[in-house]
C-alpha cells in the first residue's frame, strides 16, 4: 500500500519519526538505528514503510533502508515476535548483524534485546535461516549473500573455530565478512583473530 514516504523530518522520539509529506505528517514507528541515521529536524528524509493493520490499531513502520524493512517483515512473520519485539531486535542489531546471528545460530546475542527469550531466539533462527539466505545484505565495502556465511565450507568452519575461542558467532561472521570462500580455514582463522584483536 505505502512503499515509502519522503519529506521533512518534523519530530522524533524513541522509536518514532514523523515525516511531513505534502502537508501531512506521517507518524512512523522505527528503530534506534534508523533514528540515528536521519539527521536533524528539518532535513529531508526517506523512509521505506510497511502498514500494520490490527483489529484495534493501525501503525505505520518506517526504515532507513530496504534491508532493514525486509528484516523487520521477516522477524514479524515469526510466531511470538510482534512489531515491538522486531523493532527492539533491529534497534540492537543492524540487518547485517541480524543475518550473521541467524546464519551462525547465535541465539545468545538475540536474547539481549528486550522481550526476546531463549525460546523465541531459537524460533527466530529456526524459521528464518532459509529465508535470510535469500536476502542480499550490504557491508562497508561490498554486497554479499547471507548464505555465503552460513552455507558451510571454509568460512563456516573458521567461524566455528573462532566461536570455540570465545567470540560470538556474530563477531566471527563480521570479522570474516568479505573474505574469499576458497581461503584456507587456517588463514581465515588468522585473519579473524587479527580483526577481532581490535574489538
What would you note in describing this structure?
By secondary structure, the protein is an alpha+beta fold. It folds into 2 domains: 4-64, Nucleic acid-binding proteins (OB fold (Dihydrolipoamide Acetyltransferase, E2P), Beta Barrel); 67-196, Orthogonal Bundle (DNA polymerase, domain 1). The protein contains 10 helices and 7 strands. The chain has helices at 32-38, 66-76, 83-92, 95-103, 107-110, 118-132, 147-150, 153-164, 169-175, 185-196, and strands at 4-13, 16-21, 24-29, 44-53, 58-63, 136-138, 143-145. The chain has a 5-stranded mixed beta barrel with strand order 1-2-3-5-4. The protein has a two-stranded antiparallel sheet with strand order 6-7.
| Uncertain spans | 136-152
Name of the CATH homologous superfamily of the largest domain = 5' to 3' exonuclease, C-terminal subdomain
Give the fraction of residues assigned to helices: 40-55%
Say how many strands there are: 7
Order of helices and strands: EEEHEEHHHHHEEHHHH
What class would the helix/strand composition place it in? Answer: alpha+beta
Largest sheet strand order = 1-2-3-5-4
Amino acid at each position: 500500500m505505502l512503499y515509502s514516504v519522503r519529506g521533512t523530518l518534523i519530530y522524533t522520539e524513541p522509536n518514532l519519526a514523523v515525516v511531513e509529506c505534502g502537508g501531512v505528517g506521517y507518524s512512523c514507528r522505527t528503530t534506534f538505528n534508523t533514528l540515528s541515521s536521519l539527521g536533524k529536524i528539518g532535513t529531508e528524509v526517506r523512509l521505506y514503510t510497511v502498514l500494520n493493520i490490527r483489529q484495534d490499531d493501525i501503525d505505520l513502520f518506517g526504515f532507513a533502508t530496504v534491508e532493514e524493512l525486509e528484516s523487520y517483515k521477516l522477524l514479524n512473520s515469526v510466531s511470538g515476535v510482534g512489531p515491538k519485539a522486531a523493532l527492539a531486535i533491529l534497534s540492537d542489531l543492524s540487518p547485517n548483524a541480524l543475518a550473521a546471528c541467524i546464519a551462525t545460530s547465535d541465539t545468545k546475542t538475540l536474547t539481549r534485546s528486550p522481550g526476546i527469550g531463549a525460546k523465541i531466539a531459537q524460533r527466530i533462527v529456526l524459521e528464518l535461516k532459509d529465508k535470510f539466505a535469500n536476502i542480499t545484505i550490504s557491508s562497508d565495502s561490498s554486497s554479499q549473500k547471507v548464505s555465503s556465511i552460513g552455507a558451510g565450507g571454509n568460512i563456516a568452519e573458521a567461524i566455528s573455530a573462532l566461536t570455540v575461542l570465545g567470540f560470538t558467532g556474530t563477531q566471527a561472521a563480521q570479522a570474516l565478512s568479505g573474505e574469499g570462500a576458497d581461503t584456507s580455514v587456517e588463514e581465515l582463522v588468522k585473519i579473524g583473530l587479527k580483526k577481532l584483536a581490535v574489538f
